[in-house]
Write a structure and sequence with these properties.
The chain is α/β, with parallel strands linked by helices. The chain has two domains: 277 residues, Zn peptidases (Aminopeptidase); 129 residues, Roll (Aminopeptidase i, Domain 2). It contains eleven helices and 20 strands.
């Protein structure tokens, strides 16, 4: 596939996935189009060799896999690619309605390590999951997306904040309530959601009982740069990796056990029923391999590539990187290592990736955080600790991580894809 077509599909996926629930729905639609069948955790499974399947949990995490064909997975193991569906953002509080000086606002809660300054003065829309009761008293959940700008967080004029460019700090409680419009009386936000559901064609909505809603930047993803060198979008961390893993799984030839796992809640520690520190992946493995001895043998022969974006060296802040470990955008995927196991890469898993990349003609970079700075982490070390599986942490370099709008290279996503496909097809790791 040409890079332009690859990136066109990537941009469509990013724009269709403003929340983790929408991201999983987007992944599921593409998996079904590729012939993968959805299974449900509450039902009995009878997967067939060579066929593809997927499960969802909480609507925000997904595991997709292709059953091994012509081989004993206990001997060859699984090839796993992991990523996460959530991104730092602003979420609506349970009782959010505010009326101040005639303006209708919604109170927000900060989800994850948000870079807050870029959220001001952006056209914001609203999306997520809504739970509601119908006229017969039955409960339902639906995805909701206003799609158009419905809110803004205006900056305070510099004339009233003379220190804005030198020492401004943001109080998340008081600075961030989003302006939705003007009103003399406090609207019922749940009633507004009910009306929107009805207007989008959902019938029988009697009352909205609860919701999980995220504000998001209404500006869509785009290619930019004089030669279209870059992709700019919200949620590149880490929907970029989800898409790359999806494409690799769909396009890989059937063979050994091949798995894509995209967990929610990575940005807040991964400790949840659907997070990497929860039981979802382990429970899936126990169901597809009920025999404990076979399962443990398979894990010993398996490998996980945890794909989560890396910090590209910023030309204005190059001193924030170790001189020998500043990844460049559009110079290939990045192996992430950390002596204190914040990343799970080791010399053996790194060597295999370098070998596969060399066979595909893909350059590889390295990232180690400055020794005097704290290091982030990924689902890699968590999954490695939960399952005991060999793991590599890899990522596409990007700028502005955790901003409302991030930047990556237009060539790096497909470069990583080109390595993940032969990894998934590899008989032994």
């Amino acid at each position: 596939m040409a890079q332009s077509e690859f990136n066109r599909e990537l941009i469509e996926f990013l724009d269709a996935s403003p929340t983790p629930w929408h991201a999983v729905s987007s992944l599921a639609i593409r998996l079904q189009a590729a012939g993968f069948a959805e299974l449900h955790e509450s039902q009995r499974w009878l997967p067939e060799p060579g066929k593809g399947y997927f499960i969802r949990r909480n609507g925000s995490s997904i595991i997709a896999w292709r059953q091994p064909i012509g081989t004993d997975v206990a001997d060859t193991g699984w090839r796993l690619v992991g990523a996460h569906t959530d991104s730092p953002c602003l979420r609506v509080k349970p009782q959010p309605e505010l009326i101040r000086k005639g303006y209708f606002q919604l109170g927000i809660e900060v989800y994850g390590g948000v870079l807050l300054n870029p959220w001001f003065d952006r056209d914001l829309s609203l999306a997520g999951r809504v739970s509601w009761r119908d006229d017969a008293g039955q409960l339902h959940s639906s995805l909701i997306d206003f799609e158009r700008p419905v809110a803004i967080i205006p900056s305070l004029a510099i004339h009233l904040d003379r220190e804005a460019n030198s020492s401004r700090s943001i109080n998340a409680q008081t600075f961030l309530p989003a302006v939705m419009g003007q009103a003399k009386q406090k609207p019922d936000f749940r009633e507004l959601l009910r009306e929107h559901l009805i207007n989008t064609g959902i019938e029988g909505v009697s009352r909205v009982l609860d919701y999980e809603l995220c504000f998001y930047d209404a500006q869509g993803a785009s290619e930019l740069g004089l030669n279209r060198e870059f992709i700019a979008s919200a949620r590149l961390d880490n929907l970029l990796s989800c898409f790359i893993g999806l494409k690799a799984l769909i396009d890989a030839d059937a063979g050994p056990g091949q798995v894509l796992v995209c967990n929610d809640h990575e940005e807040v520690g991964s400790m949840s029923a659907s997070g990497a520190q929860g039981p979802m992946l382990k429970q899936w493995l126990e169901r597809v391999m009920p025999d404990a001895d076979s399962r443990n043998r398979a894990l010993a022969a398996s490998m996980l590539i945890s794909a989560d974006n890396a910090h590209g060296v910023h030309p204005n802040f190059a001193d924030r990187h170790d001189d020998n470990h500043g990844p460049l955008i559009n110079a290939g995927p990045v192996i992430k290592t950390n002596a204190n196991q914040r990343y799970a890469s080791n010399s053996e898993t790194s060597a295999l990736f370098r070998h596969l990349a060399e066979e595909q003609g893909v350059p590889v970079q390295s990232f180690v955080v400055r020794t005097d700075m704290a290091c982030g982490s990924t689902i890699g070390p968590i999954t490695a600790a939960e399952l005991g599986v060999r793991t590599l942490d890899i990522g596409v370099p990007q700028f502005a991580m955790h901003s409302i709008r991030e930047l990556a290279g237009s060539g790096d996503a497909q470069a990583l894809y080109r390595v993940l496909v032969p990894f998934l097809e590899r008989e032994r790791v």
